[in-house]
Amino acid sequence: MFDKIPAAVIDFVRGTFATANDKVSRTLTVHPSMHEESLDHLLIAELTATPPTFFSNDQAAVGIETHWLGGRRMYGRWEIADIALFIILRISGKLEARKTALIQTKRLYSKEIPTSELEEMDYQIGIGRIADKTDQIFPLSVQRAFSFDDSCVFGAMTSGSPQVQRIEAYIQEKNIPVYYGLYCPVAVPYSGFYPTTAGSDNVPKNDLGCRIQSSIDTHAALGKVTAGKAPTLSELRIDLSPTAQRPYGWSLQEFVADEVLRCREGRLFDGSADQNLQSLFYERSAPISAAISITIDIQGD
What residues does each domain of the chain span? Predict the structure, then answer.
């Protein structure tokens, strides 16, 4: 079914997600204390701005839609994924096939700039949490040096955590694959100053950025890390193949265009009556915060 997708459509999807990846990665590179949730928002916003596109030579079109669910509803008190990726294939408007992949995002911490994760209280108080910040802080008028290298950690991820156990239980129960989206700077090593200097634009091209790993690979790597310890970038290094230059997983655009659209990754749903599909699509308590839907419509014979 998915082999019907024209190469031009796959190239377009790859380019669109590469642009979004570049935006998010460059932002993290110059704003090392940005919350993971804000990076999710930025990725969703970039994809939302993409208009439906028609390819006349192939008589095919692609539309990307997003939906921010919010609320951070939990599965057994631990979120399973931040983003649900849906692929919908239609032939002359008629539904042909659907598939999905869930992505749990984590961000790399710089060495010098502290990052505090959002907590339950932040969601309860809401916008007022911004106005509550009345304590003395490090002055923004004094620049601080910061750096990223492969010894930096994913501070919101720990070996042997309950979240890892919940994700594995969810995969076994629902048979829906979960992947990790690792927000990284555009390159490592990288060093800069925070706040960034006005008018400066010396960020290199995106050679690292957002990387995708299967939960199987990520959890296997975490199993080699001391229990309770946050893994470093180097400890999550994986080799997808002996010749691949992707030591930290697929780039976001490779994963979506070359793995999911080409049906090597993700879960294909054969019918709308699938109970696991129903619970993921329609239950408000589904364990995701945002959804990205890629609809591809091809003219039939």
Answer: 2-113+144-298
